[in-house]
Amino acid sequence: xxxEEIEKxxxxxxxxxxxxxxxxxxxxxxFVQRFTTTVALYDRAKCVAILxxxxxxxxxxxxxxxxxxxxxxxxxxxPAYAMLIDETGEERES
Length: 94
Hints:
- The protein has three helices and three strands, in the order αββααβ.
- By secondary structure, the chain is an alpha+beta fold.
- It has a three-stranded mixed sheet with strand order 1-2-3.
- Helix 2 (about 45-55) packs across helix 3 (about 60-70).
């Protein structure tokens, strides 16, 4: 999905103030509700894969993602990142 398509989807659901993670549009998988707030939801493995595709090693991508993306609190609208688990209990790869 493109950023414009995601923004349109947000608008259709009355979520105009939602915060989106820049550069991770391909990893957008929907929305999640926590308490009274709905936030954008991204697939963590896909986010890391995007960073790898941009030239980082797997280890560098994981470290960058954890420190610069997950730890970047921007208020109640901060996006969430899902660790999707496969049938064996392992984190699903992108």
